[in-house]
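Researcher: Quick sanity check before group meeting.
Model: Go ahead. Protein one:
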Amino acid sequence: MNYSQRFGIILLLVIGVILVWYTIFYSPRRLLLLDEEMQAEELQQQLSLLSGLTGTVEEIEQKITVLKSGFNQVTRGIRTKQEFNTGIQEISSLAGRYKVSINIINPSLENRSILNPELEKKWLGFEMQSHQITLQLTGKYPDIGRFMEAIGRLNTPFHIESVQIVSDPAVYPELNAFITLLGYSLVRG
């Protein structure tokens, strides 16, 4: 075999490999099959999701009842709006016992719903809201610390969200403190 015949055979082999490679990976028919396989896989996933949702109406209602009772247990410690206001008064009276003077009590006018208010009222019969209250107070460092510890022990619907203590030469040897409380209340629908 001479050089031109070898070259022709090698060229035919290379062209044949390219045609086979194109047919396997890039032919329109192959792309169509891949697309159909992807669609079938997607439908299979959707079907498996839907099969997980099956159940009788009684089973679903029973699950809802269990969830409601669990939620009621969780919200048992949350106060109504009136009890929330009583908690603010308890904190105010507590300040005098710990030699801390509250200069400003600034309740946030924004009541933030925890979940979706319409769904809460529909399923639970009430709406749960969070409220932010900022206290500006003056006192000595140990007294401020004991006051914050006492807030944590109170049976009020508040917890301390943040504390900022600032040294001010105008009130030395006392300090200014800014305490942000976060509370929760139930609004019956």
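Researcher: Fine. The other one?
Model: Protein two, sequence then structure:
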Amino acid sequence: MALQSTGPISMKNIKDELGSTSNILRVYSEAAGKTAPHSIKEFLGYSAATTTTAAPTTTTAAPTTTTAAPTTTTAAPTTTTEAPTTTTAAPTTTTTAAPPPFSFLVTNGRLNSSLACATTAKPITLYSYDSDFSLADRFYSTNTHPYTPFDGQDRWYSNGIEAVQINSSGYPIDSFTCPVPTTTTTAAPTTTTTAAPTTTTAAPTTTTAAPTTTTAAPTTTTAAPTTTTEAPTTTTAAPTTTAAPAPVYYDYVRCTGANAYAFPIFSVVISGGAPSSVTIQGNCYSPLDGTGYTGTPNYPVRAYTATGCNCE
């Protein structure tokens, strides 16, 4: 069954029409015989059914030759003098587009996104009309006229945060968010200090009876000293780790601008189901298929700021 010819279509619609198992738009376009730059709009009205074209039929008529009798006519000579004409061309004004204002230091081209993210040297400068490296519509190797599109050779380039695959015409094909190193913090142990032991010695008591006819011998009573020492106690609190619930991802594609329904494509974390459209970094995005999943996101993760924007 052919895809609809107007209105938005999702990558899942294209995937079902082609019977593909991939989640990459470039793979769909190549399977359908289309060329870069790849766009979801290429598939409006597309059908994967086989098309049969009838062979052209050519009919050649027999040639006909007709020879007319020769006719000779001598006209009277005519002399015409035209007034000279002077034409002044209007001046031509050429408008040069403004140079791309944003620049990015990136790595040399690598075979995949992981190698690009792992590379630290960034000897190449790219220019673009977009301030976000992962959202740029096209990259240039110079910002002086004429602005030369960057020949990316379908390789991956990274600015240390994002990795972008760029074709030979400077257009991004795919993007990937570089992983951030994980830091684990352990709570410092708690030490309890016990007060030093206390020793108390009772003062000796002497009792002398008053003299009578009989004088009692004096009695001296000395209490034995008592010493109590408490053993010190040290208590170390074990660190507590609480696992966060696994996030639920939904995939969205930008549905406005020059590359609407083509790229960029991002994954977002949404609770309670995917809205029909969301706003990401000031642009309107449409869901690819509206199906949530956990684990590894299919595309770079972005936060959305609003729901219910207007797609083209």
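Researcher: One line on it for the slide.
Model: The longest strand covers residues 172-177.
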